UniProtKB/TrEMBL annotation:
Its main location: membrane. The lineage of its organism: Bacteria, Pseudomonadati, Acidobacteriota, Holophagae, Holophagales. This is Biopolymer transporter ExbB. It is a multi-pass membrane protein. InterPro entries: ExbB/TolQ_transport (IPR050790), MotA_ExbB_proton_chnl (IPR002898). The keyword Kinase does not apply. Residues 118-224 form the MotA/TolQ/ExbB proton channel domain.
Length: 242
């Protein structure tokens, strides 16, 4: 957040007429650059919203999964499938619970089919159902990720566009008004570079948050696969005893 204090925000507290403040940068900016600055701040607000929403979702999922897994596996080993499904329903914020409950529902359905056909394989449909369930959960986990990736890739270019527009304005002023005061010229160039700084300020956290969320997504998928493997092992054990 320290970048907020650089070129755009720096100097708000200084407030002097000759200071390189955010307010003066905004007043001096062309309409096009004001539009670009507004877009960058909107993108910043969006990524903050996505980051908070995603981290809260992952935290709730982890907390629910920690409580759910032991309860689910204990009831499964006792053969109390209804209690296992109730545990999944109770901890429905857990992504693992969503997948395992789906697998358990399919196993019970396949067991009914097996009563009519003893040679029916009840395990393979469960494995396919878990793969489908995991794929659906991955799509849920990707919520907002494409937006963050796009912001990380485009924000520097949007800022650079503002700088190019600002530099064109500087040269246009030089042509019509002459070189004039070198301090004023330096100030105009600095104001033009402010949009690039803002673009980088928006992009860098977006890339960082994107990578953090990608790692969390991988951890959730690994945990789902491990839990599903334990559940299928239990189904195979029961099938071998029946």
């Amino acid at each position: 957040m320290n970048l907020l204090a650089t070129p755009l925000m720096l100097g708000l507290a200084e407030g002097g007429h000759d200071s390189f403040s955010a307010a003066e940068i905004w007043r001096a900016a062309s309409i096009a650059n004001k539009f670009i600055i507004t877009v960058l701040f909107l993108l910043m607000a969006y990524q903050i919203y996505v980051a908070i929403e995603r981290f809260v979702t992952y935290a709730q999922s982890k907390q629910a999964s920690d409580k759910f897994l032991k309860l689910f596996m204990d009831t499964l080993r006792r053969g109390d499938f209804e209690a296992a499904k109730r545990a999944a329903t109770t901890h429905n914020k857990s992504h693992i619970a969503l997948v395992l409950k789906h697998g358990l529902d399919i196993f019970q359905y396949e067991k009914q089919l097996k009563t009519m056909n003893p040679n029916h394989d009840a395990i393979q449909p469960v494995e396919r159902a878990i793969q489908r369930g995991t794929a659906e959960v991955v799509e849920l986990l990707k919520k907002g990720m494409s937006g963050l990736g796009t912001i990380g890739a485009l924000a520097p270019f949007i800022g650079l566009l503002g700088t190019v527009i600002g530099i064109i304005k500087v040269f246009s002023d030089l042509k019509t008004k002459g070189a004039g005061d070198i301090n004023a010229l330096a100030g105009s160039i600095g104001e033009a570079l402010a949009t690039t700084a803002l673009g980088l300020f928006v992009a860098i956290p977006a890339v960082w948050i994107y990578n953090l969320l990608t790692n969390k997504q991988d951890v959730v998928v690994t945990n789902i696969n491990n839990a599903a493997s334990q559940m299928i092992d239990e189904f195979i054990r029961r099938e071998s005893q029946s």
